[in-house]
Amino acid sequence: MENRNIKSLENAINLLLSLSKKEYVSVTELSNDLGLTKGAVSKILATFRNFDFVTQDDQTKQYSLGPMLISLGYYAMNRLDIRKIAKPFLAKLSEKYNENTMIMMAQGEQVIVVELCESNLPIKLAMKLGECHPFYRGAAPKVLLAYMDEKKRDKIIAKMQFEPLTKNTITQKERLLQRLEEIKRDGYCISKGEIDLSIMAIAVPIRDFSGNVVASLAMSGPRGRMEEHNLENILQDLFKIADLISVQLGAKA
Hints:
By secondary structure, the protein is of the alpha+beta class. It has ten helices and eight strands. It folds into two domains: 2-75, Arc Repressor Mutant, subunit A (Orthogonal Bundle), CATH 1.10.10; 80-248, GAF domain (Beta-Lactamase), CATH 3.30.450.40. Helix 5 runs antiparallel to helix 10 (231-248) and helix 6 packs across helix 8 (173-186).
């Protein structure tokens, strides 16, 4: 009996996770995704509706995540401060390489620096907490754009007005889309001279409990100095730290 109850709970949790991947989902889609009968899926949904965990569209009869989960999400986010989680890791990276390390997150049609540890060396790219950047310029912003929901990404790209800071700044939508595919293929982004010709940056994604990319971890510095550190070593450390932060945000190890 206990195993059956646990299995039922697992089915209910997996249903919510499946719902989180799309805006609206039908009973048939959920049944196929989870390998459950439509009757079993309908029973779980009926229970979740009673607690406002899901809502149903009156016309299409499809389901989406409900307002109670939004409230619970806000409570959880208040307890999972990515800045607080990331700060010691950024400090460790910055101490090892003596370069800028930062966390950036999407905010509307821009990307914002939410946490930062600066190099204490005189030659560096000056950055500030709360500083905003466009999605098409730099390593960390493009990582966020590459892993974004396709519809949301396309809307942002459609509104872009490219303003090059250097000859290396991307200025065409076609080239940007190509670059985003390369980032998804490689799992990271290296930006050389897009903001300042002498500066390069490397960025990797940070994921949350649902597996979605919610932030990017980056390191930036003068190109010659960064290459002296060995880019493979930097990448290895960035991936390691991004995984540790992701786990603390609820991602699977």
